[in-house]
Amino acid sequence: MKKVFDRRWFVSLLVLVLLAFPFLVGQSSYFMGLVVTMAIYAIAAMSLNLLTGYGGQVSIGQGGFLMMGTYSTGVLSTTFGLPIWLALPSAGVIAALVSLVIGLPAVRLKGHFLAVATLGFGLSIPEIALNWKSVTGGYSGLPLMRPEWASDDLTFFYVILMLTFLVTWVLMNIANSRLGRAFLAIRDSEIAAAATGINVAGYKTVMFMISAFFTGLAGGLYAYWIQYISPNDFTIMASFFLLAMIVVGGLASIWGAILGAVLFTGIPHFSDAYVGVTNLVIGLAVVLVILFRPAGLVSLGEFFQRRKQRPSGETPVEKVPGQDFEEADNA
Amino acid sequence: MFLIKKNWKKWTTAASLAALFAAPPAWADDLDAPQGVTDTEIRIGHLGPQTGPVAAYDKIRMGIQSYFKHVNENGGVKGRKLRLIAYDDQYQPGRTVQLTKRLVDEDKVYAMLGNVCTPCNVATRRFNERSGIPMLMTSSGSKQFVDPPIANYMGSSLANYEFEARVLTNYIATSLKAKRVVVAYQNDDYGSPLAEAAKEALKEYQDVELVGEVNFQAADSDLSTQAQRIRQADPDAILAFSTPAPAAQLKKALYNIGLSEPAFLVSSVGGDSETMFDLAGKEVWNGTISSAVLPKPDQSDDESIKQYIEQFGKDYPKVALADWGQTGWAAAEVLVEALRRSETLSWDDFLSAFDSFDNWTGSMYAGVSFSEHNHYGLTSMFITEAKDGHIVPISKPITFDPVTGQISGG
Amino acid sequence: MGQIVVSGLIFGCVYGLAALGLVLIFRTTGLVNFAHGEMAMVSSFVAFSLLTNFELPYYGAFLAAIAFSAFFGIAVFWVLIRHVSQASHLNQLVMTLGVFLAIHGAAGLIWGHTPTSFPKAVEGKSFSIAGVFITPNEIFVLVITFLLSMILFVLFRYTRVGLAMRASSQDLVAARLMGINVNAVFLATWAAGSVLGGIAGLLTAPFTFLGVSMMFNVLIMAFAAAVLAGFMSLPGAVIGGLMIGVFGNLVSYYWAPEMALVCTFALIVAVLYIRPQGIFGDAPTMKKV
After folding, report:
1. Confidence of residue B31 (pLDDT cuts 50, 70, 90)
2. C-beta atoms of B279 and C115 within 8 A
């Protein structure tokens, strides 16, 4: 806990920069949108990291929960007239309830079997959204209005920023709580976890629900920011990218998820000027990071930090590929 | 926590970059343009998918790029070069909204040309109406962008979907005299609205019956169940609304189960390309009826088509000529003509320059017309038939009057 | 009904062929290769340029493309995968995801995004057997799929190479101690898996058209097939592919085409709920506690 002071300092600086951000970029709606997209992917990636990094349950269908969040928010707020502060959490709850459907078989499934079951979910949600015309509007999508008080981008930027801070804080606490430790125990060995009295099936279900809740919430925020919902956003590629974000950023680390989200949403900003190179650049970035920083980008930060302040008495842990689960949880 | 510091650095660079963009460029005073025009260039924006399953539409961008190059090599417009700024929205409306802000607010483009993807255009419409940026020759046939007219939306580079559906159903009912029709459509923002329009149009003909309806996805390659359903409906004519690959798959699947009797009609997006003979097979595709708004490069001695073949063939030697490149080129021709006709380059002046287009034939299109009540731009098309590896026109131009809704000619 | 089942079987073969390579690589190296489909796509493009630019005859181009596949598989393994062979499965999976994106992006830049036709292995018109239409090429695909899965099954079970592959998959250290050159075994596996992918690509291209996105849906269905079958059995992967092909077609015909994908995955989840190790999978054993 020696590093707490430094961390606080840097976190405060980051928060300040983010709060001042709109004025640093002359209230540019585009640059605010870039940060908003990063924030939304960060929430989704942190939630996935809780499930995959901490809990060891691989999901290739998180994009499905993002899309569920967008549509739930859209339908609740346009069809049922729910105000935003009710629509957003309800979208999370709906996503969490649906995650039960996945979570139920997932409790029995492992590794690649779980991966494909969730892949199926991620593929099915856009299909259902496209074809359930009476509710989703099908191909024409759903327009969505922000509430009056947050109709301009500047105000809503702060709404999203505040919620992102809140969610980050909550997820950090979950990760460091009894719950988070139980997840880690399940990841490392289900049998050992069960032997110590952890209700493995119960915790796995809870894991899925928490992760789906926040991902759904992120989807809802995105819908309000874009103010339009379509079955073309959050395709299966979004699910792939989310998984890549947490591995590239750093598994079982809140900061890792944030870094991954920032990297993946930041790359297109620079690569879009060149025709058709975005996928190639992202793919190469993923390959290089996994080859050279198998524990994710977050390990880069720790590496430098440890070199600067060795006296804490910890010996630097040499990172061995394959054991990347072990040291990342104190990140 | 080194990374956060690094992050912060990144933000400051982003911020200074943004400040750079935001700095007012030197406008030419006499032209009075709100943004995007400097002493040397006019910036035009374009959004469409450059990667992913529907990246074939990226050829619209290539067509625009190629025409801009052609214009720039011949002296430019109003003494300025045209510069195209295009981003990849991957056919995702969320990205389109973001990138529209980037083009309008950061890159400060003067106008946008030929933006692809109906839902993407729906998602950005509110923003564009507010900013007033001229939206030209939108690459969607959806009526909502042109009728009722929106002040800053001018024209679409595709034939209007409703118009096309009516032309094709009229052909089925009056020329083919078919009695039993099956509608097959791609289940997305392209095929579904056309199918709805066609079903509506079919109701006008009392002796023509809709005997079946099948749908498929753009990425489907096995259309055998759809073919089987069509066979069971026993139609005289099959009306397909589809992009090229599934249209070819459907025709092949029908052919493979011995169903080559009924007339096969495809909307222009899926049928108006000679690559169809390659995809489906020459023998399979022969006889297919489609509609078109642009003449084929090899069947016209139109001046602008000659220029297109020369320039586009040089710029993109590996890309087929009779394809979306033509659409982009033709849309760019309309833009450049409007720029030339506009006295100053204030948006008001520029947009009202369109009203002077009265069946303008200087472009690849048969005729382009705009007026206060007509923002369609493209109001004529013709029927084509696939014969021996070529797509040949089999009708005179058919014209649609946006004010009365009447269709004439053919 | 007959027609629906037969065309389901043919697409099932396509999925099964792609699944064969996936399962082969997984069995031996424990890695799920997301780039499998994109590697197959590249091989198909290589064959295509040999056919059009160098005007090779079909079978010449076919063989050359397969040789290229083997080389490509070895290169991907040696340059990239080898370095993560000790990493966690998730890292390996995301690594292949990165390779998938990079190949897809590069292919788009090189070959563009317009689909083109690709010649069939066997030309010929469709004919009807007992009211069911089938083309000679479709029969060829059925036969090849059956033969390949049988050959692989025999190779894996009864030859020394197969034994070495099985040994490496069970216990790397023990295999090494037994004098098995594990790196050579892995190389051979990647070459073989990639060749299977290449064959799948070459046989798929006439059905899906040649294009950079041609293998995406096939790969997803191949995953589904492999998982349905338990990810360990080679003939099982083909049977899984056939089941998915037929099931999807039946849903498409009797209910709605748009429900085919959703129902296929619902079926898989249902099957896995009853048998978490897949249809042909062994009862779960505890490798690591």
Report:
1. low
2. yes
